[in-house]
Every structure is written in structure tokens, then in C-alpha cells.
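Form 7-S
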Amino acid sequence: MMTQQQLPLHIEGLDEYQSKVIDASPAWLKAFRQRSVGQLSHLGIPSVKDEEFKYTSLIELSNKRFQLAGHHKLTEETELRDFVDKGDIDIVLVNGVLSPELSDLRGLPKGLTIISFKEAAVHFPTEVEASVSKMTANDPKAFLYLNQALFLDGVFIKLADRAVIEPLVHIIHVTSGTEENTVLFPRTLIHVGAGVQAAILESHVSFAATPSFYWSNALTDVRVGNDAVLQYCKIEAESPYAVHTGTTRVWQERSSSLDLFSFAHKAHLVRNNLTVLLKGEGTNTIMNGFYALDGQQHVDNHTLLDIQQPHCTSYQLYKGILNGASRAVFNGKIYVHPLAQKTNGYQLNKHLLLGKDARVDTKPQLEIFADDVKCTHGATIGQMSDEELFYLRSRCINKETAVRLLSRGFIDDIVNTIKNASVRLKLNRLLAVKFPEVKL
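Output:
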């Protein structure tokens, strides 16, 4: 039964989909997905009456009748080739289905396994089941159950203990050939073994030239083993007519280091839920993010850093530039459990408003139940400094160039925190569309 906090969701062809896709899953996965389908019967899309969606209206999703995306042969191969870089390990999924012919799956480095989710459910059932059955306090349940019940396939990446992977591992979720009001469910599962060193980029992109509305509801689970060092970045560059709702969950074990970056760029509406659970003692976590918005774009970032063990350090910085009548929402929480003594946590959210009608709602939060910790948080929202503009204008730099220079300074401050050069290059290419290189 729907509550006032939920909006109805309409997806056509569920019975046929269940008989063709869900019933073909291994027994344990079939039962799990059927339970998720059962949960959907009394769950709808969250409304603004839900506190966690107070500033993000999803009424647009409720007003449409969606059809499920099917597997589609990629027609934008030229655009894909322009997006990737030589030397990376590219893993391409089209509408949620792994494409071996477009991916680099031959001659993989020692210790790296890349297979489809369907294969992983058969060959690694214990590891896969242990991950997909978990819940966190930051999960939007409707989006989680939707993905678990209705994903077509996905990718499973396993990095063996003590593997050192030099090239960037690039997961590319491409939306292609979708008709109006299509919904799809990208699924990614990453297992990083003990002592591993690696960099992983996950991109959600669309190269289609024709405008059509679609909804991408993605789910990514990452497990980081003891003493591992992982750089992980997520890029959202969907169609400007699309809605992207992404749930990313990370389980971080003892003495591991995680350098995480989130970038939202192109979709009409984005809701990112990011949860990092510090399950082991002595972890180090960096959670940074950036979003560049224009027009009527809307980006909502909900993050939870759940610190469960002592001697953990964390640093979080999210920055956004807003032009036009765009809107950003940031809700970041650091939760420190009673056992997590000697914890050091820092959180900051900063916004630069270029548009007179741009709007920001920000709510950094600390919930601390340990008494020997150092935790701080803060938020700033401001326009471009008149003094800085005057300084540049007084040196014969026109206003447009001055604004671009100052904007790039605000951007580079956080983009340059990304250690992997290939990831930085890709982000700067995307940013060049909105903030072209300034030549004086």
C-alpha cells in the first residue's frame, strides 16, 4: 500500500520480463530477485514528503509509463572510440549488458578477472550473494529493489589478493537505442582483494544525438580488502534529457585506503546516493566530488560515511558550479559509532553561483557517539568575488575571460586532487564543453 511519502511507479511488461529474465537466473539469485519484485508491490517513487527527498521532486518519473530497455547493438562506436584512451582496460556495457566485442577482455593483467554478472552468479555464487544481499542505512529502498529485481545483466570485477594493476580499469555503461520513456538498470560488482593497488573509473554515458527521455537506475557495490589501495571515480555524462539515480556502496576493510571521486555533469536530473562503511580499524578515506550545472539541471548528492572502527581518518570535499537556473542539493553525514575512538573526520561543501536564479540546499551533518574524536564540517555558498573580477579587469582582461579564469581555478582546485592522469584527462575533456580553455 502506497503512503503519502510515495508516488506510483508504472513499468510495463513486468510479467513477461520475469518469465524471460528472472526465471533464467540460478536458483539462489532467482529467489532473491523474486523477493525484490515482491517488495516493489508496496514501494513507489519517493516524494518530497520523504525527508531524504525533500528538495528533489521525482514527480516526472511518476507521470510516465516506462518500458524496460532491451539489449541493443551500439550504433555510436565512433563516439565511443573518441571517449576512451589507449592504454586503459575498457569494459563496455550497452544498456546494462556486457559487450565482449567492444571491451578489452583479452590479455588482462595477472590477478584481474572480468566477467558478466550472469557468469559470476554461477562461478562465484558465495561472493556475489554476500554482496547483493546487503543493505545500508543510506539506500533508497525503491531504487535498490528496482535494480535488484530488474537488471538485465552487469559486470563482475575481481582483483586477486596483492594484485597490482597498472592500467586504469574503465567501466563504461553506455545507454543506446532507447525509445521514449525507457528505464534501464546498470549493475556493477567490484571485489578488491587484500593488498591490491588499482584505479577504477566507472562512466555512465550516452552518445545518442536524438533527444529521448530515459531513466537510468544504477547500482554499484565495491568491497575493499585489508591493506588495499583503491582509487575509484564515477562519471555521470548521460543525455541532457535523462534522469540518473545512482546507488554506490563501499565496504572498506582494515588498514585500506580509498580515494573516491564523484563527478556529475550532463543529465537533466541526478540523484547520487553514496555510502562508505568503514568496517576495519585504521582505514583512510577520501570522498571528493564535483558537479558543473547549467540551465535547469538538478543534482542531489546524499553521502554517508559510516565509521565503525577506531583509528580511522576521512576527508570529504564536494564542490559545485551552478549557472542559469540550476539547482544543487548536498546532504552529507558522518556517523561515528561508539567503538570508533581516535577518529579524525573532515567534511566541507562549497558552491560557486554564476547564475542569478541558481539555488543550493546543503546540509552537512555529524552524528558522533564516541568521545575521543576530531570531526569538523562546514558549507559555503557564494557568488564570484567582485574584487577578483576587478583585479583581472584592471589588467585588460574582459569580463567573460575573467569569469572563465576564476571558474577554472575553482574547478582545478578539486579536479587536481585526482591522482590518476587518465581520469583527470577525461574529466577535463568533459568540462571543456562548459568551461573552454582560456587563451590570453
